Amino acid sequence: MVLTRRQMLQAAVAAGMPFAMGASSVKRRPPTSSTPFQVPMPIPAVLRPSHRSATTDYYDLDIQTARAEILRGRPVPVITFNGKFPGPTIHAHAGRRTIVRQHNKLSEEANVHLHGGVVSQDNDGLPMDVIAPGTSRTYVYPNSQVAASLWYHDHAHHLESEHVYRGLAGFYLLSDAHEQRLSLPEGPYDVPIMIRDAELAPDGSLVYDEDDFFGRTTILVNGKPQPYFRVAARKYRFRLLNGANLRPFELNLSTGDEFVQIGSDRGLLETPWRTTMIPLSPAERADVIVDFSRYPLGTQVVLRNSLFATDTTTDVMRFDVVRPAPDRSRIPERLATLPLLQAPSVTRKFTLLMDPAQMMGTINGKPFDMNRIDTVVKYGASEVWEITNINTDGAPHNFHVHLVDFRVLDINGRPPDPGQTGLKDTVRVMPGETVRILTTFDFQYTGTYVYHCHMMDHSSMGLMAQLRIDK
């Protein structure tokens, strides 16, 4: 059902939701909107190495202010990697190191977290481990993991929410030899798509108000409002990323046809999953294949959102089938072999809460404190984590753990859909839900990492905690 903004606000008030969905910052100014499908969807530029060795690719990135045309003809200030909105895509290969030197040219602190990356504590971009203005920091990524659609973004505490909202995010696409042998769509038919929302001022600039769900009424795809993308009548691989700060999506095609989901956050699924709906909370990824050969030339297929959808947040983008093309790609019946689930040694319970009175987020009743270790685990241990959203005001949450991947065991006691059974690092936890995940802490490194709600306005307000992995 599509609701108007007024209807959503009335429903929020009736449900006692003054804070959870941002109703506390309801705007008196009218939202700026644009007509859908008027601009082409850009594909993020690929970052080229500054140099290469036998084992390593070296990159330089500037964290800097720039101007971008979100609305056509209206360049506005944004915060970027290398002046790109969103940031440039880094291509990496398993077993070959990536070294990125980040130069902070802002007037405030920043840092970089490789979301989904198996990296040491010193290279994780932890919230308090920041790059001072005018200085540089080198991050080393060993890429000792399977192929996956990762992304990188700012994680400096209390700044990460606004920095990412204003543009500090980009794709990091990791391949491996196994994936390359599968004959999946590749090259120009392998397309990263970052979906998010925003509030735009009349001049087209980004308006940031913390926890402002209702004000963010414009859907951006790779930095452009509800664009179109011209496709050939053949199979495409789309690497879908929810890059929003708060908004979860449930994506479907206007034709009612199926996606073929082949991957989730941290790699390929075991087998393809045919589905008409792709759920994505902030930071979740889904690799899907859409076969446009089933449509006559001239067909227009709209990618739509059905969750918390309003008149302006239903249509995401449009695919225009414009030409024939040969297609030697295929979708194998088996994609990957996932690790066996290990017997857990302990079950831990975590509650997620945003306090509307104090504008504070807590895990197990405590806001983030850099001087406190909240959870200590033994290296190599397998654990079940039971995560419950205890907000009674309708606030959705999700849950992200740094370093490790996990498997979703069940949601409110029910097994997850096949698209959620692969290797994950982020999982949606809707109001009143309890999600159980299983992870084994044997990812090469020990030290201190964090886990948090990846609705970044929430983590910025304290919905985050620290994890220490000990030998």
Backbone shape: globular
CATH architecture descriptor of the largest domain: Sandwich
DSSP helical segment count: 4
User: Would you tell me the structural class of the helices and strands?
Assistant: mainly beta
Percent range for helical residues? under 10%
Determine the N-to-C terminus distance. Answer: 51 Å
Q: Average pLDDT, to the nearest integer?
A: 93
Name a few traits of the molecule.
mainly beta, 5% helix, 471 residues, five-stranded mixed beta sheet, 4 helices, Immunoglobulin-like, disordered N terminus, 3 domains
Describe the structure.
The protein has helices at residues 5-14, 160-165, 177-180, 456-460; strands at residues 51-52, 56-69, 75-81, 90-93, 97-104, 113-115, 136-141, 148-153, 169-175, 190-200, 206-207, 218-221, 224-225, 228-233, 235-242, 249-253, 259-264, 267-275, 278-280, 285-291, 300-305, 315-324, 346-355, 360-363, 375-378, 382-389, 397-401, 407-411, 426-429, 434-440, 447-452, 464-470. It has 471 residues and is mainly β. The strands form 6 sheets. Strands 10, 11, 12, 13, 15, 17, 18 and 20 form an 8-stranded mixed β-sheet that branches. The longest helix has 10 residues, at 5-14. The protein starts with a helix and ends with a strand.
